[in-house]
Amino acid sequence: MDFLAGCIGGAAGVLVGHPFDTVKVRLQVQSVEKPLYRGTFHCFQSIVRQESMLGLYKGIGSPMMGLTFINAIVFGVQGHTLRRLGQDTPAHQFLAGAAAGAIQCVICCPMELAKTRMQMQGTGEKKSKRKLYKNSLDCLLRIYNREGMRGINRGMVTTFIRETPGFGVYFLAYDVLTRSLGCEPDDPYLIPKLLFAGGMSGIASWLSTYPVDVIKSRLQADGVGGVNQYSGIGDCVRQSMQREGWRVFTRGLTSTLLRAFPVNAATFATVTLFLLYMREDEAGKDCEPAPRSLQQQPQASSL
C-alpha cells in the first residue's frame, strides 16, 4: 500500500514542480563569466520567451518515469523501516527517512543525470538546431555507450550525501508538524494542514542539503559539449568557491523553494489521504473501527 501511495504522490509532485526545477538547474550551472539569467524570474521569463512554455518541461520524461518508482521506494522503505524499528518516534522517523533516501539513490542519480542533460539541451533556442539527445532514455544510452556505468552514475556520491540526511529531515519535519497541528482523520481542516505540513517539510529538507545539490548539478552537467571542467567533487567545490565565493551554494535557491512547497504539499497530502482512505476501507471490510488518530499509525509522519 505504501508503494502504491508513493507512486500516486510522485506523479502529482512532478507535474506541479518541473518548470521551477528547470529554472533551478539553469541557474545552478550557468557560467559566472557570461551569465544568461539575472535571477529566478528573469530565467523563467527568458525560457518562455526564447523556448516557449515547452522549454520549462524539458527533461520531464525522466522524472515522470523515475519519480514514480522513487516515491514508491521512499514511502515503502520508510514505512517498512519504521515498522521494523517498532516505535514511532521523531528519531525513528529520521532514521527511516534516511534509510529510504539512501536506497533510492540507485534510481535517483541516473534519473537526475538524464533530466539535467535534457534541461541544458537547446538553451535559448525555440527549436534546437542540433539535439544531442532525443529523449531521456536516449540520453542515458548515449552516456552509457561513451562512459559505461561510471558515466551513468555520475554524481552518485553527491546524490547520496544529499538524499540520506535530506529525507531524514523530510520525514522528521512532516512528523513533527502533523503532530503539532493535531491532524485527525475527522478534522474539517485536515487537507489544509496536510498541505502546509508537506510543503514546509519539503522546504526544510532542501535547506538542509542545498549546497550539495548545487555541486551535484554542476558535476552532472559537466561534459555537455564535450568539455569536462571538473575532475571530482573537491575540484568542483574549489573552482566554484574561487570564482563565485560562498554565494555559489545559494544559486537557484529561490526557484527551489518556490517549487518545494507545492510539490511536497501535493505529494504528502496525496499519500496521506490515500493511505487513510485505504485503511478506512480495510477497516470497514474487517468490521473494525477506522483509526481515530493519525498519530496512532506506524507509518510515515504518523499517517
Structural class determined from secondary elements: mainly alpha
Characterize the main sheet. Answer: none
Order of helices and strands: HHHHHHHHHH
Sequence stretches where pLDDT stays below 50 over 5 or more residues? 1-10, 287-303
Q: What is the overall shape?
A: globular
Strand-residue proportion: under 5%
C-alpha Rg (nearest Å):
20 Å
Helicity level, as a percent range? Answer: over 70%
Structural features, described:
The structure is a single chain. 71% of the residues lie in helices and 0% in strands. It has 303 residues and is mostly helical. Helix 1 (2-29) crosses helix 3, helix 4 packs antiparallel against helix 7 (156-181) and helix 5 (105-120) packs across helix 7 (156-181). This is Mitochondrial basic amino acids transporter. Keywords: Amino-acid transport, Membrane, Mitochondrion, Mitochondrion inner membrane, Repeat, Transmembrane, Transmembrane helix, Transport. It is found in: Mitochondrion inner membrane. Solcar repeats lie at residues 1-84, 88-180, 192-277.
